[in-house]
Amino acid sequence: MRNLLRLLRFLRPYRVQVAIAAFLTLVSLAGDLVTPLVLGWTIDRGLASKRMDLVILYSLLLVTLAGTRSLAGFLQGYVQSLAGQSVVRDLRHRLYEHLQHLPVSFYRKMPTGQIMSRVTSDVEAVQEFVSWGFLFLSAGLVSLVGTMVILLVINWRLSVVVMLPIIPLALTVVGFDRRIGPAWEDVRGQMGRLTTVLQEAISGVRVVKAFAREGYETNRFGAQNQTYRAKSIRRGRIEARSFPTMDLFMGFCFVVLAWYGGLLVIRGELTLGFFFAYQWYLWGVIWPVRMMGWLLSIMRQSLAAMPRLTEIMDAPITIGDAPEAVALPAVRGEIRFENVWFAFPDAPDRSVLKGLDLTIEAGQTVAILGSTGSGKSSVINLIPRFYDATQGAVRVDGLDVRQVRLASLRRHIGIVPQETFLFSATVRENISFGRPDASQGEIETVARQAQAHDFIMALPKGYETRIGERGIGLSGGQKQRIALARALLMDPAILILDEATSSVDTETEYEIQLALEEVMAHRTSVIIAQRLSTIKMADKVVVLKDGRVAEEGTHAGLLALGGEYTRIYNLQFREQEELAALSGAPVTEMA
Fold first, then answer.
1. pLDDT category of residue 587 using cuts at 50, 70 and 90
2. Is residue 352 within 8 Å of residue 547, measured between CB atoms?
3. To 10 degrees, what angle do helices 272-313 and 52-101 make?
4. Residue 90: which domain range?
5. What are phi and psi of 92, to 5 degrees?
6. Are residues 412 and 492 in contact, defined by beta-carbon separation less than 8 angstroms?
7. Is the pLDDT of residue 132 over 60?
8. By three-state DSSP, how is residue 375 classified?
9. Which of 7, 60, 300, 359 shows the smallest number of beta carbons within 10 Å?
């Protein structure tokens, strides 16, 4: 019931349209209730008395009632559909807007396929009920009550006898409602799992092909598809058993009417006109009860979808603006980590950072180094508040980032992730994503700085070339250079590079680093280091171990220290540097 009330709450902004639709439904129902009575008059007052003028009069009245019902039905359907589609639009927009503001931690626990299934097929299930199912259900209840009252007035004894088969019919509907709800919940949940498999296989198509796992993925999808079929068949079996049973009890109602009603006509206790009118009215009782099963199926389908939608809508926005948050003024770029502890929300007992203290001066280029699990990614994720520190504070120019308006903080930070994501839009639109108003000249300037201009101009339509989904039409190095240009266009005071040159060859890397030296000269740069060339160009190297700063200093100073950095250098860099010195080639990527 709570889910139903919450669903109907979305109709509030459109209560005028709903009221109009309800009024038109009542007009149509009034026509339905009067029509059998007029038919009875046509037979009893017109045909029985052999007065053709009354037959014509009542026939015209029947035509008028039919026209009124049809017009009211058409207008009601249009108005209700308008309100229903508006509700679905609002619901889908609210879901999408909420998804945009949910923290990164939410996406760690909910697969993309599940989200897509909920925003598409689950919303469509809600649409069916809101657009017409709810009003049909309400109209059926009104028709049922109104018709039963009329039947009792016509002949209460006949009504009591004829309604006896309605009791098992109603019990069948109640039993159907109890079984169809869980069945629809299973179907909806399985559709989410099926969509997840589909989304993963399509997004990872290169990996699938690289490992020749097409057959495995086909079987995996087939297994989920088979499960969906089984759950859908189970749901269909419930409907297949219930609906014919309902039809059987409906038939008994007319059998009883033919027997007992015919007996009353023969005895003269019921006119022939009212016998036919009664038969028509009986449909006004049976139709709502019979349709109740179908409408309950629609309602249950919608109610099964609603908790899946509310799970998204009710997910807390844990990363947002504090009530007293202020806009970040012009940024110098000083970053300080003060006794920072951090654990991912889905693993609160396993701290990644453990009392981290680190200062990055304004305008300084800092390379962060460490083994897997040392906390490198957590450091760069805390600066733009993709996550919040569990304890301690991260400060930019002395201000706690949690006390700064999120949009103003991120406006001063340019990020190039290691896993580059590009939209299926033009090259120009991808570069100008953070600044849609940027001029073509500005776009080309940053593209040149990122060593991307030449290959972009070689594309079929240059900057207007549309790239495939996730940039599938470009190489890894080309995607990284476009992502770098996108970050540079923001002209950020703080630049975060998650090894932004890992997918380019050494010659291109050298050219990019020459450009970056100029770009980094006037801004704070934080780099996750995987190459020795990156470390050597940094003003300071920070070595992380077990969530803390193990060492910090320059490349030469840390080597002389003979500690953790020296150990990493001897394991991963020394041989490469010696080979590079002998050949005169640039230092290659860290193993």
1. very low
2. yes
3. 10
4. 2-177+241-313
5. -65, -40
6. yes
7. yes
8. coil
9. 60
Residue 100 resides in a domain: yes
**Whole-angstrom distance, CA of residue 6 vs CA of residue 212:** 48
Residue-wise pLDDT for 366-383, tens only, equals: 999 888 788 888 899 999
How many folded domains does the chain comprise?
Answer: 1
Question: What are the pLDDT digits (tens) for 93-108?
Answer: 888 888 888 888 888 7
What's the DSSP call for residue 586?
P
Residue 288 CA to residue 301 CA, distance in Å, equals 19
Quote the CA–CA distance of 139 and 116 in Å, as a whole number.
Answer: 34
* Helix or strand holding residue 342 (H, E): strand 335-343
For tokens 């989200």, name the residue.
Answer: 115
Is residue 454 in a domain? no
CA distance 28 to 136: 12
End-to-end CA distance of the chain: 59
| H or E segment to which residue 370 belongs | strand 365-370
Residue 270's contacts (CB-CB under 8 Å, 6 or more residues apart) are 154, 155, 158, 261, 264, 278
Q: Residue 233 and residue 209: Cα distance in Å, rounded?
A: 33
The answer to whether the beta carbons of residues 500 and 480 sit under 8 Å apart is: yes
Note the residue count of the chain: 591
- 206 within a domain of the structure (yes/no): no
pTM tops 0.85: no
C-alpha distance from residue 559 to each of 210, 260, 564, 571 (Å): 40, 105, 9, 13
Give the SS3 label for residue 322.
coil
Distance CA 332, CA 337 (A): 16
The CATH number linked to 145 is 1.20.1560.10
Give the torsion through C-alpha atoms of 211, 214, 220, 225, to 10 deg. Answer: 160
Confidence of residue 581 (pLDDT cuts 50, 70, 90): low
Domain contains 57: yes
